[in-house]
Amino acid sequence: MLVARFSGLVLYSGKQQATSKENMKVSGFTIARNAVKLNYPILASIKSILPLVDEFVINVGDSEDNTLEVIQSIRSDKIKIIQNVWDFSQGKEVLSQQTNLALKECTGDWAFYLQSDEVVHEEDWPRLKKLMEKYLNNPEVDALRFKWLHFYGSYFRYRVDAGWYQKQDRIIRNNGKIVSEGDAWGFCRTDGQPMNRIVTNCFIYHYGWVQPQDIMGERITNASNIGFAADVDKDHTGQYDYGDLTRFPPYFGSHPDVMRERVAKHKLSQDDLKSIREEYKYHPALLFNWRWKTGKRIKKRIT
């Protein structure tokens, strides 16, 4: 394809025909295994972008619980389920391998990836759709990048310290040239060139670290079994210690609608929210219920 630039205007010529915005197709995709056992908000995750996509491919692994039945309970003709046996001899790379199997089933112009504990806020739908339409026929854009809110212990505390990535790609151009890599935390080009991306300024709400202590302990054990480093905050009983949550920044905004019931039922979070409202009662983000994240990045890990 020939690409020409004139004063910032990009013109494309060649065999590839531009797709109209009206005909744009978006695929959602994810992987899931033991999502019920490990308390992943898998249904909330899928439903958080289901209105944005034309199909949603879910690669379900050989689970020890009723993960498959739970996903089958979603009443939508957009859902496409495939099943695979995960090969744990691959270590944590099994996650990207299974993610790429799901990606291969996607037929959209864009492929929107969410892990089972990642959720999108409905207030971001219009902006995401607009950006996908804007860059639909610009082959130089490989991906759309999100900011991260890694909630920890409480639905109203998040981590910005070292070891917790704060931005990553989740919408990729589905052209067969971009694949999941490593432990499926991000994507890369198959030709080895750097990814070209657009920053969305939208959030991914990551809820994997808001769990009861026993379930969090089991998740740490499960992760270490496939090659992730064991977490130092897991004690010998299998319980996970979140420590003093006030050492982490507070979150003042709303959560996605699909998560509100979970948030409301989480007593530690509700108690934490009361203390946040008292301590920060004059903070503008709290007064106006802004979905705001601190710009201060802590370079060392908080223990």
Structure description:
The protein has helices at residues 42-47, 67-72, 93-104, 125-134, 213-225, 260-265, 267-279, 284-287; strands at residues 2-6, 9-13, 26-32, 55-61, 79-84, 110-113, 118-119, 143-152, 154-158, 167-173, 178-181, 186-189, 197-209. It is an alpha/beta fold and 303 residues long. The strands form three sheets. Strands 3, 4, 5, 6, 7, 8, 9, 10 and 13 form a nine-stranded mixed sheet that branches. The radius of gyration is 20 Å and the shape is globular.
Q: Show unreliable segments.
A: 1-15
Name the structural class. alpha/beta
Q: pLDDT average, as an integer?
A: 90
Strand content: 25-35%
- Quickly count the helices: 8
Oligomer: single chain
Through-space gap between termini: 51 Å
